[in-house]
Amino acid sequence: MPISLVTGAAGFIGSHVVDSLLADGHQVVALDDLSGGFADNVNPHAIFIEASCTDHLKLAHIFNEYKFDYVFHLAAYAAEGLSHFIKRFNYTNNVIGSVNLINEAVKHDIKRFIFTSSIAVYGRNQLPMREELIPSPEDSYGIAKYSVELELKASHEMFGLDYVIFRPHNVYGERQNTGDKYRNVIGIFMNQILAGEPLTLFGDGEQKRAFSYIADVAPIVAKSATHNDARNEIFNVGADIVYTVNQLAKAVMEAMGSTAPLNYLPARNEVVNAWSDHAKVHKVFGAPNEISLADGLKRMADWVKKAGVRQSKPFEGIEIEKNLPPSWKGQLKD
């Protein structure tokens, strides 16, 4: 039985990857520091360890204790817009934490290192974004993700560490942290509806995105560990149909069976339109029976109504206040 380490395992995508690995016959060690995830997200059949990827001594101990075959690295603080203002935090968690894992993977001859990057690496590139494009990230989060991609390529060439890189985008579904005020627009909208608040949109709401249901993403990530054609490849993964944020707001209200006023806030400095091409991942893994946005939102809405309103602590440790969106200033602590 293969043994796999999953980081970020109490988080949204990570917990679903754990489920898929267990279903595929892996023994799973689930690692999370619970800074953004919830312990009850972790499948009880996994071995749960509360720890941070930034703790290299703890990681060394864990790798010595368990003889891992595969590493699935999903732990990250994935707030693109906020990352401009928390650079030190961003790079410590998203780069140094990743390097700590890569070091241990090399030392322990891990068979394959699976990393979830982001389409944030592309920046304002031509649409749809394809894997052969040269990345040009525009925010600190995207820069961090791309640097880890480059490190994995360098570690493969120097040490023979095999890898698979996924660039997902706007993934949603059950177990998402709807209390996070800075990322995951669908969760934010649903939480605002439950709380009886208006839906907040930045700019005119005409930004375009594709929104990916978790069941179309997590199983592919899990299967990549042993898929021969995935070895040392990069894949975009997610949905193909594009929506504006205005259209999304309407669809979320329909799924929740409720209406809410729309509160348009000043536009943020962000990539306006972002979606990717998935021909490569479909060729290797097969085209999924993609779940429609309406069906996916309904499934998530049913779960959200049971989970109720979630509250997240204000982000502590803002590093730069210059040009911080006004709507965030009251939510952040120095």
Provide mean pLDDT, rounded: 93
Radius of gyration: 19 Å
Give the strand content. Answer: 15-25%
Helix content: 25-40%
Cα-to-Cα separation, first versus last residue: 47 Å
With strands numbered from the N-terminus, the spatial order across the biggest sheet is 3-2-1-4-5-6-11
- Class by alpha and beta content: alpha/beta
The low-confidence parts are none
The description of the largest β-sheet is: 7 strands, parallel
Order of helices and strands: EHEEHEHHEHEEHEEEHEEHEEHHH
Number of helices: 11
Tell me how many strands there are: 14
User: Globular, elongated, flat, extended or rod-shaped: what is the shape?
Assistant: globular
Task: Provide key terms for this protein.
globular, 16% strand, seven-stranded parallel beta sheet, 334 residues, alpha/beta
